[in-house]
Write a structure and sequence with these properties.
Chain C: It comes from Leptothoe kymatousa TAU-MAC 1615. The structure holds three protein chains of three kinds. In chain A, the strands form two sheets. In chain A, strands 4-5-6-9-7-8 form a six-stranded mixed sheet. Chain A has a five-stranded mixed sheet with strand order 3-2-1-10-11. Chain A has one domain (3-230): Metallo-dependent phosphatases (Purple Acid Phosphatase, chain A, domain 2). Chain A is an alpha/beta fold. Chain A has helices at residues 13-23, 44-52, 67-75, 85-101, 105-112, 143-153, and strands at 3-6, 30-34, 62-64, 118-120, 123-125, 157-160, 166-182, 185-186, 197-202, 211-218, 223-230. Chain A has six helices and eleven strands. In chain B, α2 links the parallel β2 (32-35) and β3. Chain B starts with a strand and ends in a 6-residue tail after the last helix. Residues 266-270 of chain B have low confidence and may be disordered. By secondary structure, chain C is α/β, with parallel strands linked by helices. Chain C has a domain at 2-118 and 153-162 and 196-251: Purple Acid Phosphatase, chain A, domain 2. Chain C has helices spanning 13-25, 44-53, 62-69, 81-97, 100-107, 138-146, 231-240, 245-251, and strands at 2-6, 30-33, 112-115, 118-121, 152-155, 162-176, 185-189, 192-196, 210-216, 222-227. Chain C is globular and about 70 Å long. Classes of the chains: A alpha/beta, B alpha/beta, C alpha/beta. Chains B and C meet through α6 and α7 of B and α4 and α8 of C. β7 of chain A pairs antiparallel with β6 of chain C.
């Protein structure tokens, strides 16, 4: 098995095509897209259609929702807060209008039917973290927070896409003395796991013009590779 | 003349009558018959049928005909609930071995007088006291639940409450419950014995709509708040849409399991 | 200075009165309350009045929030269909019972309170609905304390009191990326504590007694208090006021009105 894990297409069809091309040479068995398939810059309708109908011989993409999809749901009032305050803060009124016009109601419905995340083997694949779609994990996130996200994910590998960066953070809980006292007295101490676990940023397909990044992972042997694909004008 | 064995088993609730009989039903080498008068639709009937499909279960109205025309070597077990009058002419007229199972602490009782053989119950803590402090005989409350599928954590909770006395004093509880993964469980509780026993019944998983096989609950006790019990049980049952959703998930899982099993089977070498 | 921290009163006025007199006898200087003043119990208005008249600093619990905002707890926060059904009955009853000024007061409650190196929340710093169970992974528990910048985190919501010390925490992190490859970074934390105040009005430690905690800010000493009170009064009021009678049965056994969610870290996908 060999997974290709993508995120952050953000409506950038050219970038997605370039990545699909690159994937063809990698003996990939599963294609995961960790949210943000739509965005402010690209052609959102075109990318949704492309995802909905893969061509003959192409893998069926498995899509979960990301930050931009959640903004879309908020705008259309199908979940979360009304009127997308987060989006308003990020792109302003004109941006909100442009974004609103770029996606049809049918597409919103389709996006809404996509997954929350994927739990496969000992991996969690998700846009932010189980805390929130907006949870942005980076190599600079405090160690205890990374550790917490891994515990919450109940996984040895947490793949996420919110930051748009490609990185691998290996977190090892080395030591902790935990003592619990209840009404019945001091309780037996808890075992604290010592094995390292990984938070992996899978990169971004469409956020930086001209350069797409994504991740390859083989769950059997834990082999991880970051791919960078240049496209467009040389 | 054809030969057959007839065994009558009696005793107070919870001593293990059905369990004692079950040891003989496990061996299908002879034609086996089971009869529990006045217990139509009861949990024991269904449990015997589910666990020992080769046993012929005789309903009250067939009893006379079947008993009159038993095959050679037949073994017949008649379980007599505590509510049966052991002195009734019908029972007295029956030939056969009379077994009473009684709590070891009980020295004399109508069961002792009636029986050819008295077996001490393995359930030490069962009192054998039928009447409550007020001298009232316990009531039996039966509720057929066929077609109902339970939310598992809700069922656990309501059984803890029931057996803990939240809806009246329960001395005995037995039930067959269907769960959303398609499995059916036999649940057994005897007042004085620790815990509630759950046994998975070896039945095909029912994952297509509401199960069309018997499930139900039987409670023996005092001052049972029957209406409240029924309400609480219904609150634990799954609605159509929820059940459908569960069944889809379990069908999917079953499909995946089968695929994995097929993939891991060794290939045939020509 | 001696602090008394109380939580999860749930409209149980009898229990609150008993705890307040115990606090007086223990000569505490200041009381803090971690919310859930209402819900399940028969005297929501009286409990809020008492807390207000004593000007006890209080943070908002999940039940207080639901009464203000309308029932918005996601269904997955209930452990079972039965618990959800009962939770809704209790919510509807409380919603009808409470006075407008009480609702307004509950709306003003903050999600957390700070005092020097102490932080007070209902569930966890993340959410009023999250359970900080004593069995939670130590590093995850530590993250909750660190996120508040406090040394001691007081919480409630689980209804079972405990003190947890988290000492000598060490983590190591290695970053690899196309842009950088750092040497392993070590992370260490000094001693942190989580103190769960238990529940005044809805205990679930298996006895009907109310629980709360005392904390000495000078010596950092914690005392878990268990206070007996006349719970039959509350049980009778539950029946008289038309709340489900099962609440009274559970309260008298220290079983809580509805059992808590099995999976405290469960994430709502709605």
């Amino acid at each position: 098995m060999n997974w290709a894990i993508l995120s952050g297409i953000e409506g950038n069809l050219t970038a997605y095509e370039a990545v699909l091309q690159d994937i063809q040479d990698q003996a990939v068995t599963d294609l995961y897209i960790l949210g943000d398939v739509v965005g402010l810059q690209g052609d959102n309708e075109a990318i949704i259609q492309r995802l909905q109908s893969p061509r003959a011989g192409e893998l069926e993409p498995q899509v979960c929702v990301g930050w931009w999809e959640e903004q879309c749901f908020s705008l259309y009032g199908v979940s979360g807060l009304q009127d997308a305050p987060e989006l308003m803060a990020k792109v302003g009124g004109d941006g909100v209008k442009t974004f609103w016009k770029s996606i049809s109601r049918e597409s919103v419905r389709w996006l809404r039917s996509q997954h929350f995340g994927f739990h496969e083997q000992d991996c969690l694949l998700i846009h932010g973290s189980t805390v929130s779609y907006a949870d942005e994990l980076t190599p600079d996130t405090p160690a205890i927070e990374l550790c917490d996200r891994l515990i919450r994910a109940d996984a040895n590998h947490l793949f996420c896409g919110r930051s748009g960066l490609t990185f691998e953070c290996s977190v090892t809980p080395v030591a902790l003395r935990s003592t619990v006292t209840t009404l019945d007295g001091v309780q037996a101490p808890q075992d604290c796991g010592k094995t390292p676990r990984q938070v992996i940023g899978v990169g971004s397909v469409g956020r930086s013009p001209g350069q797409a990044t994504y991740t390859l992972f083989s769950p059997e042997n834990g082999q991880l590779a970051f791919r960078s694909v240049n496209y467009g004008q040389p | 003349m054809q030969s057959f064995d007839l065994t009558l088993v009696a005793g107070p609730p919870g001593v293990g009558k059905t369990t004692w009989i079950s040891q003989f039903l496990a061996n299908p080498s002879r034609p086996l018959f089971y009869l529990c008068p006045c217990a139509q639709d009861a949990v024991d009937f269904a449990r015997i049928g589910y666990c020992f499909p080769w046993v012929s279960i005789i309903s009250d109205d067939q009893a006379a005909d079947v008993l009159a025309d038993l095959p050679d070597q037949a073994q017949v077990f008649i379980e007599l609930g505590f509510h049966m009058d052991l002195g009734s002419p019908l029972l007295v007229a029956l030939p056969g071995r009379r077994i009473a199972i009684v709590p070891p602490s009980l020295d004399s009782s109508e069961w002792h007088n009636w029986a050819d053989e008295v077996i001490p119950s393995p359930n030490q803590q069962v009192s054998g006291e039928l009447a409550s402090a007020s001298g009232k005989l316990p009531t039996i409350w039966r509720s057929p639940l066929t077609g109902q599928v339970f939310d598992p954590p809700s069922l656990d909770e309501v059984l803890i409450e029931l057996t803990g006395g939240a809806y009246g004093q329960v001395t005995r509880l037995k039930g067959i419950f269907e769960l959303p993964d398609g499995q059916a469980f036999y649940v057994d509780f005897v007042e004085g014995l620790p815990g509630i026993e759950y046994t998975e019944l070896k039945l095909p998983r029912w994952l297509e709509g509401r199960p069309d096989r018997f499930s139900g609950l039987e409670i023996v006790g005092h001052n049972l708040e029957q209406k409240t019990i029924a309400q609480a049980l219904l609150t634990c049952c799954l609605a159509d849409d929820v059940l459908l959703q569960y069944q889809r998930q379990y069908q999917q899982l079953q499909l995946e399991d089968e695929t994995v099993a097929a993939e891991t089977e060794p290939g045939v070498v020509a | 200075m001696k602090l008394a921290v109380i939580s999860c009163i749930h409209g149980n006025y009898e229990a609150l009165k008993a705890v307040l007199s115990d606090i007086e006898a223990q000569k505490a200087d200041q009381i803090y309350c971690l919310g859930d003043l209402v819900g399940y119990g028969p005297y929501p208005n009286e409990v809020v009045n008492q807390i207000r008249s004593l000007e006890i600093p209080t943070c908002q619990g999940c039940w207080d929030e639901d009464i203000v905002e309308g029932l918005n707890a996601c269904e997955c926060s209930y452990p079972s269909q039965l618990a959800e059904h009962r939770g809704k009955l209790a919510h509807e009853w409380t919603n009808k019972e409470i006075r407008p000024d009480v609702r307004e007061y509950l709306a003003t409650l903050p999600l957390s309170l700070k005092r020097d190196n102490l932080c007070f929340v209902h569930g966890s710093p993340n959410s009023q609905h999250e359970y900080l169970l004593p069995s939670m992974d130590g590093f995850a528990a530590l993250e909750r304390v660190l996120s508040t910048d406090a040394d001691v985190l007081f919480c409630g919501h689980t209804h079972v009191p405990y003190v947890r010390e988290l000492a000598d925490a060490k983590l190591s992190v290695t970053v690899k990326s196309p842009a950088r490859s750092d040497a392993p970074q070590q992370f260490q934390a000094t001693l942190k504590r989580i103190i769960n105040a238990g529940s005044v009005g809805e205990p679930r430690h298996g006895r009907p007694n109310a629980t709360y905690v005392l904390y000495d800010t000078d010596t950092a000493q914690v005392t878990l208090r268990e206070v007996a009170y006349n719970y039959t009064k509350t049980c009778l009021a539950i029946l008289e006021k038309g709340l489900p009678s099962i609440f009274a049965w559970r309260l008298a056994r220290g079983m809580e009105f509805a059992e808590r969610a099995d999976d405290p870290t469960h994430v709502c996908e709605r």
